[in-house]
TrEMBL record:
Residues 7-424 form the FAD-dependent oxidoreductase 2 FAD-binding domain. Its cofactor is FAD. This is FAD-binding protein. It comes from Amycolatopsis rhabdoformis. It comes from the Bacteria. Coiled coil: none annotated.
Length: 463
């Protein structure tokens, strides 16, 4: 680390690790400040399904999949009903193919294109992942790479509490390593706020997204709105504070993610009356508040042996199975007994959905099916969840935080849940990967921009 301090301070060792690795690759000295000692298992990156959308990646080209910035931006526009940030969506789409190739070639991850299931809202297959399809493996790898790099230092546990800017544009990160000790002031040209959103702050959640406030929070305990408060004190613009990723399939017994692959392969969701209540394939995020509004805020996802086997590649699903959350029954009547759901309603729903899957009748909610469910049946009791917020500080296409007049605040960057994302308002605009793409993509863009400014400053000095 240089005598005058790091070239970049990254607050948050989730997606922020991408910025650290990219900046170090470009010759910068980086300090990563992380609030939790347990970040390898406790942050949102560690809890995700490790899917990063990549537009026009080499894996897409190898399979003849045509994708573009325009196609991705159109998908965001449709999913958000026209409310998504198109400037940011296009900037992320433009860098996303490069990003996933960098994850493979420079970060050393085993990346592949997911084609065995198709997530709601994506018009083409563009979600890239790792074999385990789980964020814990992803972050373990990134953390090892970062800790081994000579240009990257870690300060853990430590909390970034303030970013100071003086009249000359000099930047300082204020860090607390011990609540009972004085804070430390670290001078640096740039700070990246990668501390996620405010899902762990019940008051902010109740204020901005009351429909999901009573649901289970399934995210990092350090997502307390630090970036939102720090940026706001510096005059940053904020947007989409009501936006979030919800989920309708958190296993009640184990608090593990059942996963929406069950639904996309043909499962149905019933509420406690034994009835379906919405088009399941619209998306897992909007099913969070939908399920929260049902009787007892509880549901059952019903599937069969075929769906079970197709979902086994997902670590989250395997963990749910290993927890004993699955209930199996030979027929609908036995499933009603095992779940406690009304037999008549459950039987009618399974019969109707199977007929719709076979094309004998239209589905009353308008969904399509991969195949009809056949006995024996499995069911998992699920509850709604809040995973992370999607609103925050407004950033430009280089991840620079801007003020109300869209002017960049010197030296301040934001990524992931700290930034206002591309999911529009509420839960329904969330596309699979809208968490990791802004987390990784904005971090990558921020590091690239800081490195460019560093080079420009060096040129000015030597001129």
């Amino acid at each position: 680390m240089s005598a005058q301090g790091p070239d970049l301070v990254v607050a948050g060792a989730g997606g922020g690790l991408i910025a650290a690795l990219r900046a170090a690759q470009l010759g910068l000295d980086v300090l990563v400040v992380e609030a939790s000692e347990h970040f390898l298992r406790g942050n949102n990156t560690a809890m995700c399904t490790a899917m990063v959308p990549g537009v026009n990646s080499r894996w897409q080209r190898e399979q003849g999949i045509e994708d573009s910035v325009e196609v991705f931006a159109g998908d965001v526009d449709r999913k958000t009903k026209g409310s998504g940030d198109q400037r940011l969506a296009r900037a992320l789409a433009a860098v996303s193919g490069e990003l996933v190739e960098w994850l493979a070639d420079e970060a050393g991850l085993e990346i592949s294109l997911m084609t065995d299931m198709h997530y709601p809202g994506h018009s083409v297959d563009r979600c890239h992942t790792i074999p385990e399809r789980h964020g814990s493996v992803l972050i373990d790898h990134l953390a090892r790479q970062a800790r081994a790099h000579s240009r990257i230092d870690f300060l853990v546990p430590a909390r970034l509490t303030e970013v100071e800017l003086d009249a000359e544009g000099r930047v300082a990160a204020v860090v607390v390593t011990d609540p009972n000790a004085d804070s430390e002031r670290i001078e640096t040209p740039a700070v990246l706020l990668a501390t996620n959103g405010y899902g762990a702050d019940p008051e902010l959640v109740a204020e901005h997204m009351p429909e999901i406030a009573t649901a289970t929070y399934h995210g990092s305990e350090t997502s307390r709105g630090d970036a939102l408060r720090i940026g706001s004190r510096l005059g940053a613009a904020t947007a989409f504070l009501d936006a979030y990723q919800g989920h309708g399939a958190l296993a009640a017994k184990s608090s593990t993610l059942l996963g929406w692959a069950t639904i996309m392969h043909g499962a149905v969701m019933l509420d406690t009356t034994g009835r379906r209540f919405a088009k399941e394939t619209t998306g897992y995020s909007e099913f969070g508040p939908s399920l929260a509004a049902r009787p007892e805020a509880t549901g059952w996802v019903v599937f069969d042996r075929r769906v079970h086997e197709l979902c086994m590649p997902f670590t989250d699903f395997r963990q749910t199975v290993e927890s004993g959350a699955e209930v199996w029954a030979d027929d609908a009547r036995a499933l009603a007994v095992a779940t406690g759901l009304p037999e008549e309603a459950l039987t009618a729903e399974l019969d109707e959905s199977a007929r719709a899957a076979r094309g004998e009748i239209p589905d009353r909610f308008g969904r399509d099916y991969e195949a009809p469910l056949e006995p024996p049946y499995a069911a998992v009791k699920v509850v709604p969840a809040l995973f992370h917020t999607q609103g925050g500080l407004v950033v430009d296409g280089s991840a620079r935080v801007v003020d109300g007049d869209d002017r960049p605040i010197p030296g301040l960057y934001a990524s992931g849940g700290a930034a206002a994302g591309i999911s529009g308002h509420g839960a329904s605009g969330y596309l699979a990967g809208n968490g990791l793409l802004p987390a990784f993509g904005l971090a990558y863009l921020a590091a690239t921009a800081v490195a460019a400014e560093h080079r420009a400053a060096g040129s000015d000095t030597t001129a």
